[in-house]
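Data deposition worksheet. Section B asks for the primary sequence of the deposited chain exactly as it was used as input, without tags or linkers unless they were present during the calculation. Section C holds the resulting structure in token form. Section D is free text for depositor observations; keep each observation to a single sentence. Incomplete worksheets are returned to the depositor.
Section A, Depositor: J.P.
Section B:
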Amino acid sequence: KATVSVLYWKQHVVKMPSTASSGSPGHIESLEITDFKSYKGTHYIGPFRDFTCIIGPNGSGKSNIMDSISFVLGIKTVNMRAANLKDLVYSVETGAAKKATVKLFFAVSGSKKIVFQRTVTTAGVTEYSVDAKVVSWPKYEETLREYNILAETRNCLIFQGEVESMAHKSPKEITEMIETVAGSAELKKEYEKKRKEYQDASDVLRQTSRNKHRTGIEKNTLKLHKEEAQRYHTLMKDLSLLKVEHAMLQFYNIETGIVASKKFMSVAKTGVMNSDKAFGEVESSAKEVKQRIATLHGEHLKHHKLDKDYTQQLMVKKRISAEKDAESKMMQLKVSKLQTQLKSAKEEGEKASERLKSLETDLKEQEVIMTAHEKKWKEEDKQGALSETDIAEFKKLRSIAQEETSGLTQELKQHERNLEHARHQKASYEEVKRDNEKRLHAAHEKIITFKKKEDEATGQGGAAKEQKEEWNSELMQVKGLIQRQKEELQKKEQQLKQVTDEVASIRSDRDESKSSLRMKQALEDMMELYSGVKGRLCDLITIPNKKHRVAVTVALGRHMEAIVTDNDRTAHECVQYLKDQRIGTLSFIPLPSVRGKEVTDQHRVLGGTATPVADCITCESWLDPAIKYAIGQTILVDDLKEGQQVAWEKSSRHKVVTLDGTVLQKNGVMTGGAASIENRARKFDEKLLEGKKEKRDRLAIEVRSLHTDILRADEKERDLSAQVDAQKQKEVFYKTDIQQWSSKRKELEDELKRLKAEEKDTFGPKLEALEKEIQSLEKQVDKIQGKITVEESKIFGAFGERVKIRDVRDYERRELNKEKDRAAKRAEVRSVINRLMAQSDFEKRRERPISPAELTAQLKKLEEDTKAKRKDSENRAKEEEELEKRSAKTKEKIESNGKDLRTAETELKKLKKELSMKTADREAALKKQQQLLTLQEKLRSQRNRLRSRCVAEDVDLPNVSLVDLSKRKRKREHTESDLGSNKGGSGKHVEELESTTDAEGFVTVSEVFIEGQPNDEKTTSDLGKQSAKNMTALDFTKMKESLRSAVRKGKESYLEQLTILDHAIEEKLDAIDRLIPNMKIDDKKMKGIEGEMKKTTDNWLDAQEKQKKAHLSFIKVKEKRYARFTRAFEIISNSISAVYQLLTQGTSGDAKGVAFITSDELEEPYLGGTKFSAVPPTKRYREMESLSGGEKTVAALALLFAIHKVCPSPFFVLDEVDAALDKGNVDKVINYVQKTCTNTQFLVISLKDTFYQTASSLVGVHKVRLNHSSAVKTLDLTQYE
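Section C:
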């Protein structure tokens, strides 16, 4: 197939444009190779697409293309299969070249291109250039780095065989590879150097510290030995005397207790009998009272339920009544408003009727006046009239006069018209002025009325607003109170839930078995009986950090629940108490007796997370001996690896415990994994349980109280809300009235202002102007009239004399004025008539807002509704009154029943109290009797144990034999008796076994002992059978009076004296233990030690400063290296699985594989190995060595691609990576390349058709036999899709 393809490319050479993905940061567009390895001359290879395969027969020179790319990118020669650079030049004998050149055309975004060129001569001299400009290698490398092409890490190249080697790399080699990619390898030498310096400085510091410590110890030891030799003998003598006093004080206290208990025994028996009789009498009386209380309690509950029902019904009815009352008040307000409106409407109607009647009367008067004028004018026309001839002559003369005076007449008419017009305007203005005055007066009266109504509404609205604000303020206070109570309730409920959960958690985690409860009760009893019992060790310490609890629990071990006592004696008494009560076994830690190893500064500077367990605990200082004994020098670390280092790998071994409870012993034994450790650790929480319970009960009471308060406040809030809403409605109602009256008043005030302004600005000036104009026109008219009169008198002179008309003009004017006056009078009357008719029509047509009849109907209906509401309110009031009566009666019954119940309960309480007292007396008497018996046995047992201990410790006690004791007693009682010679006197021996007291009742001699035999379990009869020679007693007459007096004063005085002796003995013992006498000490050796001490201290200070500086320098380099490596590791770890899934998914979307990397060193991962694991699809996990060859190759490819993502280059060149893959795996790799090539350019050298048939373009390589060189052909496969 390869041969056929090559032949095809020889015949079809196609030039293709660059088509690499535009989304990538850059890509290789093409290569130009000149005399490089097997390529003679210049060869143009490309253009390369986003997925290009390079194929050809074996030996044709395919890999030399990758070598050329490696060469131009500055890769080392060893990776290009050449011993040195000159071997890269074409060197066939027939045409050897002198130099080899490779140009790489790199396309960036847009049309920008960069040409990288490298040339090497046969002498091994190489030259770099960028865009035909020669540059140095650092500059050349920097330009490549700008596009994430790294020559040192080869992040864009995978050579032939590198995939197979990757699959076989060890974890350490993978770590080194990641370090190379991450750049942290550059810091390796500096890191090793700084670490070596820090370790050397630390070693020097430790050595100087040991020298300093050793010298100090030697100095102190020499000084102490000298002093101890002088104190040793004195202490031993004092100790012997103190032990005798200590033992005799205890014996005397025990004997005093035995004597006292015998005296109280008979009294206790009598008390038991009396208390049994009194208890029976009180118990029968209590039963009768309980029956009576049960009956009363049932009746009380019944009445309470009735009262609760009545109260709820009454509250509902009162709430409804409040709402209905508010509605009734609103209806009353509406009635008042309607009544006011009705009154206003009636007044307005009456005024309108009066105005209409007045207008009609005025109209009739004007019509009468008009008729009278017409009649009068007819009568005037009949008198003084001219004949027809005279009239004709007059008209003729008038025509002549008109012709003669036409000019003056025209002027006169013009002035008369002007004068008439002015007079008419004046009359109109005067009429309008009179109307305005009337309207001003009416508006002023209405303004006063509206203002009064507005003030009334304002006052009522203000009162309603004040009442609303008062109730609203109270409502806000109630709401605020409810809100605060709800917040407090929520807070308390949350606290209650939290505390309840904590109590439940502590309870669920506790192992409350019968045995543990019995042990707990025994501990409480012992703490009550013996003041020296302090409690369990786990209850006396506190662990501030909870994560340390498991470790501390393991470190304490069996001592965790041990009981701490103040001395050995208290511990022995507690052990005997457990035996007597047959409870079980408990451990005790007597503080003065236990010894433990103390934590030193050396244990606190081990490094890392190591810290002494004792430092993780807080407790009282007096508990330190118990902590030292239980925990000692145990060290706490976080994890097992660090624990192994601290326990076994340091200069000295330590006992170590980890956070998860694993214990590492000094001898190499390691234990852990106990499942019950966590449960045991929870015992630290037991002492919190009681406090949590008390807090829970207190919170529950507070929550119930808050619920009750909120219910009451809610009821009050509803009542106030209803009242506030009613006042709001009133306020809205009054506000509407105020707005209505205010609007009307403002309209009238505006109208009044307009009319006043109109009268002031219009009527006054215009009337004055018209008056002046009329006077001027009248003068002009009179002047012209005079001229016309002169002319007319000339013409009408003869005619006037004949008809007896003195002045024709005056006659004519009279006649004319008469007509004019008549016309004016008619016009005036008609104007008044028209005005009156218009006003009458206006009054008739004027609309009212609502008629009085409608208002009356609305008022009637509203009054009926109000009446119904009132009646309904009265009915509700009756019902409420009835409920209140029932509730009152029920409450009276409850009160009466409650009194009876309280009386009975008081009686029962008294009886119970009396019964409790009788019971307590009876139990106290029994307990007292039993306690006395127990006390006697306990005291005798303590006495025997104490004597045995004294014998074991060689304490020389002052004893007296029974014979001497009998003689002393006979002498004191002045009786004669021969105890030693009477063999049958066993009864007398028994009597004399009792303790002997003096005249004042003070014990002088103890009960006797049988020498050489333990008499713990001997009875009195047994003792009576013994020989008097073997019986001895303690002689207390030889004790110090101060010691006997301390016992007689009481327990506190005795314990105080005993504690003093205990401390004195402990001090002596401690002093003796610390003393190691050595008499071989001289002054010369002491001075030498002091000089050496100063020298070692100076050396230690210098070493400490050097170690600190070295540590800071090392940490800086360590953090820098860690940051670089961790960043690369996280990128690879986050992407390896996704890459492997893509490589194993295949083209059909089947199951995916899983791959991951892990480091075996968490703190400094670059020092350990990095394990790479891969799980192929549908297969279980196996080691990498167990995978098949194809699976290894795919996994290795996934790792290489993931490493590539640390610093992704714009292209990838792969040399026969599919060589070991079958067809299925090849398809999966193809699938990955196709999905990834949109962002990264892939150039793949392959021999498998399955691979290269999916490429976007092919570069075929073949051999040219003539000159033994290689040649290439390029084919674009996209044109055949």
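Section D:
Confidence is low (pLDDT under 50) at residues 1-23, 975-992, 1012-1025.
Residues 455 and 509 are 78 Å apart (CA to CA).
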